[in-house]
Amino acid sequence: MGTVERSGDDHTSEMESAEEEEVVGSGELAQHLLKSGVTRNEMIAAITNRLHAEAMASLPPNVRRRIRALRTLQKEFVDIEAKFYSEVHALECKYEKLYKPLYEKRALIVNGTYEPNDDECLNPWRDDTEEEELARAVQNAAITEGEEKKDDKAIEPPMDPNVKGIPDFWYNIFRNVSMLSEMMQEHDEPILKCLQDIKVQMHEDPISFTLEFYFAPNEYFTNTVLTKEYLMKCKPDEESPLEFEGPEIYSCKGCEINWNAGKNVTVKTIKKKQKHKSRGSVRTVTKSVQADSFFNFFNPPTLPEDPNSTVASDVQALLTADFEIGHYIRERVVSRAVLLYTGEGLEDDDDDDYEEEEDSYSDEDSGTEEVSDVED
Amino acid sequence: MGTVERSGDDHTSEMESAEEEEVVGSGELAQHLLKSGVTRNEMIAAITNRLHAEAMASLPPNVRRRIRALRTLQKEFVDIEAKFYSEVHALECKYEKLYKPLYEKRALIVNGTYEPNDDECLNPWRDDTEEEELARAVQNAAITEGEEKKDDKAIEPPMDPNVKGIPDFWYNIFRNVSMLSEMMQEHDEPILKCLQDIKVQMHEDPISFTLEFYFAPNEYFTNTVLTKEYLMKCKPDEESPLEFEGPEIYSCKGCEINWNAGKNVTVKTIKKKQKHKSRGSVRTVTKSVQADSFFNFFNPPTLPEDPNSTVASDVQALLTADFEIGHYIRERVVSRAVLLYTGEGLEDDDDDDYEEEEDSYSDEDSGTEEVSDVED
């Protein structure tokens, strides 16, 4: 898996803080722009351009001319770089085929169709004895700790020792990965327990990829696969070629879910009482509204066909988040599923939530807290 | 330029916040680990392993066995992935050669050896008229604003209109890019004004790259080039192969700077008064200590030869920062120099400093602030 794509175009936001300090100095322009109803990002972009122009204006014309020559060279660079990224994408397509047999075997093991032999269960780089011992120690500790611990776990019944495959494999990944667990609602959980596999299909031309979610037969919908396609571009933008940073997702397509009657978790019906204006009689109407659900992932907002038309900023924000999730599923979830299941491969993907908390910890503080917890 | 390398191994720190909440539940282990003098990161890693083992222990043995089979598959995946990254590195080496003529022409223009012709100064994707008009408007504004503005700029004399090349091109990049400006001290500035070019040399086997800093003859040192070499590895670690995330820098080498007498900005002499214990007489001794300077970049801390020996955490932190800087110079500075000079390509690379500030701004707040600034 390469890490060369960026999800969404966050170029403007990247510049925000760098330019933050200078915004004040261009107050007049800012006021003008605010009056004309531009967004903050558009404003910052305009001010950045203005500052750029100001810096340029203070230079002698011949120096400005040379800078323009460097920009021409930069455009040539970007055109070559685009070819580099196309070659990387072709490599990714080639390697996806090499990974495929591994993914297929994984699916067979997870879903209990294939039982691995002893050789396949050896992890020679790992001290298995140590792992076994630790596991045994933990089990012993659980026994000696007695009733209290058992009560804690009373809600979850122990797993049937004769169970097939690895139950709830993908569901547990959803629970472990915060980017996914944040999307998952309580009513999604029984459906996601039927999730049997996630596959990526890479397409070389036009460059794009499809995420395929395979489900066991279930009472919620009749589909066996739900798909989400991400379309990418790997060419510098004609109007602002120097902003090119490699392939990026620019659009996505969902799929229709054939929900069984009364099982659609993405809508909820709300009842409303309406009073007749003149007669004063009251009637109750039911209205369907969108409900929070992971399955809204398959019904993303659509972009206007005209690439030049402006997209509402809330739609843009939704799509940016959606692109990030699609990118993350392709890059990490599919390729490292077992590590996300065990928790080893969990990244700091909830950076934002914990940033401040982390800052306020020093090594010593955290240590002291631990110790006092134990002494209680 | 690819973006496939990670600088330094920050795997442990990535897991910190994800595991933060669970640390409390493993207080006893934490206490034990703290007593044995491990660092916080090592502690979190140990607790993560313990939690992993606990989760494993609660599963029936046949399920645990299947998870081990998935880990074997994951190791196979990682071995194939390492080949993918090697191919990407080979591609990067190939493209570096394609970029080379552009970089060479850039150096000629920057240093005034070559004057670009009109065709080379065309930026057809950009509305030049608009840029010219804005530049003129800014100049006019500066004139009508009168004395006050002139006073502000009094410190910087206007540039000689017959100047050659683009004066202080690289020095201005150092000023604009916060990662570099933070390293630059006042005494470094006149030296960095002599910086004429930064080049990257890619090496295919063993995979590595060298940053070359070319200087005009100057009174500070006799070197014409200062070099910094970064050594990378692209193979999964034998003991923890599943942590593999692609090529990473693992070591770097600086170069000796032949400072002219009294010109070494990386050392400062401090005078100390010493009192003789018995005689009570006082003498003054001078002592050389390291001074803050960008040029310490060429004298990084060395790693112990034995890869298994532990590195002090402060040295490790210095090296991690150093690897990030080397990676950034290669990835962004060399390939996008003109955009960093003009300010267009500045990234949010001082994310950490501004994170909180950004959080506290809403679009509206910032807008109001702008307006009130103007009304003052």
Automatic annotation (TrEMBL), chains A, B:
Which SUPFAM superfamilies does the entry link to? NAP-like
- Gene3D superfamilies from the xrefs? 1.20.5.1500, Nucleosome assembly protein
Look up the domain of life of the source. Answer: Eukaryota
> Where are the stretches annotated Disordered?
1-26, 345-376
Q: Where in the cell is it found?
A: Nucleus
Q: Where are the transmembrane segments?
A: none
- GO cellular component terms listed in the entry, alphabetical order: nucleus
The answer, when asked if Cytoplasm is one of the entry's keywords, is no
Does the entry feature the keyword Nucleus, yes or no?
A: yes
Pfam families membership: NAP
Record's signal peptide: none
- Biased segments, Basic and acidic residues type: 1-14
* A single BP term in Gene Ontology: nucleosome assembly
Q: What broad class describes the main subcellular location of this protein?
A: nucleus
- InterPro entries in alphabetical order: NAP-like_sf, NAP_family
Keyword list, A-Z: Nucleus
Family as reported in the entry's similarity comment: Belongs to the nucleosome assembly protein (NAP) family.
PANTHER family named in the record:
TESTIS-SPECIFIC Y-ENCODED PROTEIN
The protein's name is: Nucleosome assembly protein 1-like 1-A isoform X2
In its UniProt entry, the species of origin is given as: Bombyx mandarina
Please state the gene responsible for encoding this protein: LOC114245049
